[in-house]
Structures are given as C-alpha cells and as structure tokens.
Design brief:
The complex is a heterodimer of chains A (290) and B (261). With 290 residues, chain A is an all-alpha fold. Chain A contains 11 helices and no strands. In chain A, helix 3 packs parallel to helix 6, helix 3 packs antiparallel against helix 8 and helix 5 packs across helix 6. Chain A is globular. With 261 residues, chain B is α/β, with parallel strands linked by helices. Chain B has a domain of 177 residues: Rossmann fold. Chain B contains 10 helices and 10 strands. In chain B, the strands form 2 sheets. Chain B has a 6-stranded mixed β-sheet with strand order 6-7-8-3-9-10, with helices on both faces. Chain B has a 4-stranded antiparallel β-sheet with strand order 2-1-4-5, with helices on one face. In chain B, helix 4 packs across helix 6 and helix 6 packs parallel to helix 7. Chain B is globular and about 55 Å long. Chain B starts with 9 loop residues before the first strand and ends in a 5-residue tail after the last helix. The model of chain B has no long low-confidence stretch (mean pLDDT 92). The chains are: A mainly alpha (290), B alpha/beta (261). Chains A and B meet through helix 7 and helix 8 of A and helix 2 and helix 6 of B.
Amino acid sequence: MAATVRQSATSGNLRFRHAASTAGTLVTAACASIGAALLILILGYVALAGFQAVNWSFLTQLPAPVGEPGGGVANGIVGTLITVGIATLIAAPFGLLCGLFLALFGRGWFPETVRFLSDVLSGIPSIAIGLFAYVWLVAPVRHFSAISASAAFAMLMLPVILRTSEEAIRSVPRTVREGALALGLSEFSATMRIVVPAARPAIMTGLLLAIARVTGETAPLLFTAFGSPFWNLDPTQPMAQLPLQVFTYAISPYKSWQQQAWAGALLLILAVLVLNVTARLVLNPRRARR
Amino acid sequence: MNETAVDAPLRVHDVSAYYNGSVKAISAVSMAFAPRSVTALMGPSGCGKTTLLRCLNRIHEIAPGARVEGEVLLNGENVYGPSTSVIELRRRVGMVFQRPNPFPTLSILGNVTSGLSRGMSRAHRMEIAEQALDDAALWDEVKDKLHAPPTALSGGQQQRLCIARALAVEPEVLLMDEPTSSLDPISTLSIEELMTQLAERFAIVVVTHNMQQAARVSNVSAFMLADEHGVGRLVEMDETARIFTKPKDKRTEDYITGRFG
C-alpha cells in the first residue's frame, strides 16, 4: 500500500517534470522565434522600401538639390568610409597595445582599474562621447570636422578592441607561450612571434566588430562631422556621412528623399552585416584554410 | 646516480620550489642526472615531479608568485646565479611538454626553426631543420609538406615535431614532461624508441607516472612522494633495474607494487 502511494507520487512528479520541460522548451523557442522574426521583419521591410531607390546614380552621384528627384549619396558613403577609417587607425593600435598589456600583466590594481574604466567607457552613450568631441575638437577651432567624428568613433571603438584583444591573447593556450619560452625565445619574441599571431584571427574579429559598432552610429556625427551636401575629402572640414543623410532624408517632406533614406539605411545594414559575417569567417580559420 | 656523480652535466642541490608566493611544492631535493642516459622521475600525482622538472630550465618561475630556492648546476654553473642568462640556459636545456604544443601559426618547417637565431642563412636553417626532423624520426613523414600547418599532423607526429624543435637548438639536456601521456600506444612506442636513441647523445630527464615506461626507457629512476603537508620530496634514486627489483625504501616498494598511487 505504502509502496503504491510512493510510486504514484513519483510518477505524478515525473509527469509534472515532463510538462514543465515541454513548457520551458516552448516558451524559450517562442522567444527565440520572436527575436529572429523581428530581425527578419526589419531587414525585409528596409530591403523592400530601400531596394527600388538603390541604383547606380544613387551610389555615384551627389545629393540632388532640395525637391529635385534623383541624386545620390556618394559623398556620404565616401565620408563614412573616411571617418570610420581614421577612427580605426587611431583606435586599433591603441586598443591592441592596451589589450596586450592587460593580457600579459593583468594582475594588480592598475590593470583592474584600466579594465573597469574601459567597461565604463563602453557604457557611455554615444551622444555624450560626441559632446566631448565637440567640446575638445570642434568648439576650439570653431568649425565642424570629420576628424572630430573620427575621434568620437575611436573612443567608442577603444573598449571593444581592448577587451576583445585581451581575450584573444589570453585564450592562446598557456603551453604555447611556455613552449616558446622553453626554446630560449625572449619574452618579447615569444609574445610577438608566437602568441600574438596565434591570437590574430580573434583580434581581427574584435576589430571588425568594433568597426561594425560605429559604422551606423549617428548621434556623435550631429555635432562633429555635421554633414555636407558637397564633395569634401578634407577631414579637417565638415563631411557628408551616410547615417546623417538617412536622418535628414527620412524627416524630409519629399517622397523621393524618404525613399533614399530607406536605401541609405539598407546600405548601412548591409555594410554592418558584411562586417559581422567577415568577422565570423576570420574567426574560423579552418574554413578559410579550406 | 647520486649527488656525488662526478661527470653529471646537470645536478640539483637542495632545491625547494614555491608557487603563489608561499605554497611549497617540493622541498630540499638533491640529485644528479647522469650523462648520456635517461633518468625517469616518477611518483603519484602531486608529488612535485613536474615542478622539479620545470625548475631545471627555470620555466617554473614564469607563473606569478612562483619561486625557487637552492641550486641547479649545469656543468658546474648555478643556473639561478646572478650572471646566468635564462635564454642561454633554455637553449642548453630543451623541453618537451605533456601535450604537443606546436606553434599554430607557423608551418612545420617554421616550428622546427623557431628557436634558431634569426640571422642564420636560409640554407643553414634548412640543413639544421632536416637534421632535427631526421633525428626526431619525422623527416620521411613531413618532407613533402614542410610548409603545411602543424595541425596537418597526428598527435604523435606533433609531439615528434616538438622534439625536433627542441633538438634544432642542440640542447645539452632534454627535459620531457610526460611526453606520451596524450598519445596512443603506437605513437608512445615511437617516442620511447626516440628517447633511447637520443640518450646516446645527451642526458634526458623524463617525468612519467607510467611505471612500465620508466622501466622500459630509463637507466636511472627517481621516486618522489608528497609528505603529509603535500610537499614533494625525493624518496629514492637508483639504477632503474635496482629500483624495480630491490628498492631500499618501503614506500618505493609499495608504489611499484601498486599498493598506492
């Protein structure tokens, strides 16, 4: 009798566990589907709305004067490339060296402080970073410039590059470094010739993710690069930026500009998508090496 | 065999090692390693045999908070002395690790020549690489894929590549830390044969917890054991044949007859 009772209690418990397991699977799967569906919805909508406006003249021409149809965002594309390029040139070596320092001498109050500050920096809203660039680099010279936007972008990229390169170098097996030292290589050679190259794919991934992070950034551009309807390749002057053009066109009353805003958004999404996919491919060298 | 052996290229005098600042791993170990022979360091896990090995080429001290007391004499010169170059020491005392650790971004050839001076001519490097690969019984298997990544090799081949890499810098002593523990029996056999051949040229110190391996490859065996505080000590060191037939210490006998460890 007692045995039967205990048995039915266990089987009830088991039934409850199965039900809970199924419910858990369903809820998590539903959340995952909603997330994926949202992404597909946004991508699909932007693609549909922007696709018609993407054509050769959109990619190669300057913006048309207000109210006129046609024109393109060529100066914005080039401007964004220049701004992000300069930001990368500033942030990459700096972030990599910081990451190397943290990976090799990561103990003690100083590296801990650097790590903490880097985490804080990565949490600062981009508009605030833009404000700093404005106060330091725009206000003193009394005009907007692409270089001030690059500086703001570099500040946004720095914590990403720093932490990913630290992680990348840390994740190289200890035995690889020991093997190099045991061969009589100096600390410097072991690090530069053996450890850092082994971490290179993961470092590149972090770099690409940092670039992707700032490519679509708009807020800091408002009071740094400012935008321009003309060709300008001089980074000390205001420069057209694709995200700014999307912003301006989207809130304009003209149908053709609104469509170009969608097309610009599509370009930005595609650029970030390509960067992310490349980052994954770089991280998986086995696939790249065939 | 013991510390007074006259022609020992490497001897250890009263060595204690610590990690994390104050945790003692081995205490007051003294021994001498005979020339042109294989010395096996054996004992149960945690007895300090690997720590002792890592003191010999000063790789123990690269961990934060790790330090060593006592003397390690390489041809009479204390490697912990103020005038010793660690780099020079590590070129003279090579090391092979527990798991094959080829450098992942260098080619097979690049791995073998990675310890050579960078000023050396290409032809000279190639000559040394071929000799080292040949000595490591790997040349025939890799001669057609010298520029392939080391991941193209099997585990046993990778371990022989690491041996070739160590041989290329012409060490006077070769340290091996459980070099076959991650390998299959066939690869293990080829590494053991290699050890026997290489011991005709220089001294080999091998850490193993495989007693059969110690019996097969070594001329001299040292048995280590952790005391009640977890500190590793040398129990007994003698010719391998004697250690395995009539050990002096009861604890050695218990270990080799499988009563613990």
